[in-house]
Structures are given as C-alpha cells and as structure tokens.
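The records we work with from here on pair a chain with its fold. Here is one such record, which you should read through line by line:
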Amino acid sequence: MTYFMFATGIENSNPTIDGGRVRRDQMEECGHYARWKEDFALVAEIGCGFLRIGPPLHRTLLADGRHDWEYADLAFAELRRLQIVPIVDLCHFGVPDWIGDFQNPAFPALFAAYARAFAARFPWVQLYTPVNEMYVTALFSARYGWWNEQMASDRGFVTALKHLAKANVLAMEAILEVRPDAIFIQSESSEYFHADSPAAIGPAEIRNAERFLSLDLNYGRRVDSEMYDYLLDNGMTREEYRFFMSHRLKRWCIMGNDYYVTNEHLVSADGNTRAAGEIFGYATITRQYHDRYRLPVMHTETNLVEGPTGTESVQWLWKQWANVLRVRNDGMPVVGFTWYSLTDQMDWDTALRERNGRANHLGLFDLDRKIRRVGSAYKKLIADWRDVLPAQSLCLQVPVQMLKERDGWPEGEGTSPPPLPAY
C-alpha cells in the first residue's frame, strides 16, 4: 500500500524579537496549547493523514539532557490514536533562551542530543523535519536583523547557516541511530531572484546561487566556486566545509520545498531585493531544485490570505495543486502536498517582527476553529484525489503501525520501507 501525503501543519514558529526579550510562540498565540485535542480532530475531519507538527523546542529542551515532555506525550499519543502520521518538526525558527541564538557554536551538538532523545521516547515516529527552513532562519535572524540574534551581516548569516545545517545533519544521524529507517523531509523555501535590469544580472546570479547553500551543505553537494569563496570569506573554515562534504545522508531524504507568492524577488543593480509576485511559479522553480538534487519531492508549505471575496485562497490552492500535478505528470517523483497551516496565524503580515495581535486569515480553519472556504476546498481535493494518486504515481511507503491498523494490513506484513529511488 502506498500513500500520497496530503498534509497540513500546526504552526509552531517560535523566534524571539526585541533583543531576545519577546518570544513569538505561535502555538500559544493561535490557541493550540489550549485546543490541541480539538485541532487534531479537525485534521482528521478534513481527511489529512499527515500532520507537520513538533513540540516547542524552547519549552521542551530545558537544559542539556533535561526535557519537559508533557505536551509531546499527550499530543503524540492522541495523534497515534487518531492514526494521523506526524512529520516531526523539531526546530522551527527559534531556540531556548539558555542556548541564546543561532550564533552559538554549541547549538548543533545540543540539538542532535535532543533529537536522539525525542526519537528514543517516540520510537514509532518515522518522518522528521529536524530543522525547518534553514535558509530562511539564517536570513531573517542574521542578515535581515529581524529575529533571534538580529544581526545584519554576511558573517552573521554564514555563521547561522553553518550551525543550522550542521544541527540538521547531526540530528539526522542521531535519529538514525534510534530509528534506522527514519525518513527526513527537508522543508526549505524555494526561491528565485529575477534581475530587474541588465546591471542587476550579476547580483541576481549571486542570490540564485546562495539560495541553494542550505541544501547543498545538508546533502553534501559541492557548492559553486563563488559560494565557496563567500563561505570561507565569512567565517566558515575548510574543516567545517569538509564536515558537510563527508556526510552523505541523501538516501534517507525527501526534498520538501515551500512555495508562497513571496518566494520570487526582483533584484536591483545595487543588490537590493523586493517582492516580484508569482512569475515562474512552483512548477518551474521546483524543477530547478529537483534537477540539482535528484530527490523525491514534497510540496511542504503554501498558503494565501483569504481576501475580500473569500475565494483568493481557494484559487491559490487549486493553482498550487495544478502545479504539483504538472511536475508529477512530467515524471518528477512528487510524494506529498501541504496547506500550511491548520488554523489562521498571528502577525505574519509583519513576519512576526511586531506584536500586533492581528490574525492572518491563512488557515484551513479560523482561530475559532470554524472551517474556511479553503478548508472545505482542501477537504474535497483530498477526497477526490487520495484514491487516484497512489495507483498512478511513485509515492512514499510509510509502514508505520498506525497505517497498518487503519487499513487492515494482515499480520506479518513487513515494517521496513523499500529503498527510495536511487538518483
């Protein structure tokens, strides 16, 4: 039995702002801690078999080797009861106060130990996103100066990026020690930079090389020569670079890519960027990433604000789904699709930089847990396609016990997944 992964997510971003004095915990601000059981029932109601979710790192990792598992124990027991497969997101834009920020060189080892502890406590979990959107985390924290360390320099960006990528690699290795058949779905932002004039071609080319850095390091792919110089000029040592080139974990990975209307940019001659809107779209940009890494693909995030007519987000859902079908029909191994997130979010119109208490209408459900039009549309999409795709496409096999129980698999069926396609 194969499964196309129709997913949603519990928004669990938790960076700090205002010099580290304010924590933007979206699970708290969106009411999930109080309504988690209700939230999981909504996931089941719309037919999603998969859920991107993770215990909040800043509340769970209290010190090196010391954890508070109260939320995780309750939440993951309920997911297992409902037979919803978690894709576990262990670090989503923030770290505990005692670690500080992503400039801390101790972070990768501390995080890997945490990942091992989680895997040991929940050995039935198979799917992981150890570090969410490494590129965006480094960009917003250390080049734009918005979150966490709030730095605005190339050296800060490279330092954050190398620590995030190393944390992800070490966490994958730690989880594999506990669960040798674990599968890692990298949720990374899919970006493209368009030159707005001939003079901007050079700066745009630099940005288009830089967008691949997090995945290049994660997958042990040699970076482009210009990027190699950039990394070494901004604090990465040759020994650190060789670490990434010596760790090849691709065969346990699915390239999860996120696409929003904000993912394409116009670049000026001076290197400044501004929003371009949707120009190439998901299909074209995903082909660029797939051509580079040759891995199975999952569309791991998208959304759009429900506008005045209430139909804008529904149209965006169908556009994204049409793009998924397009690349799949062209032969790309697409294994899943995600509307992110389950409920509306708070203050993402300012990228969490301002605490305005403004709900952004991005979810399948509003913050009162009433279904939005896009929620009804996604429920119908899943119902229409869930029994069509497995028979026709290359899909991930997820042999977790809950799916065996849900679908009545006979006793004695194997519990190890077949190897992913060799690329």
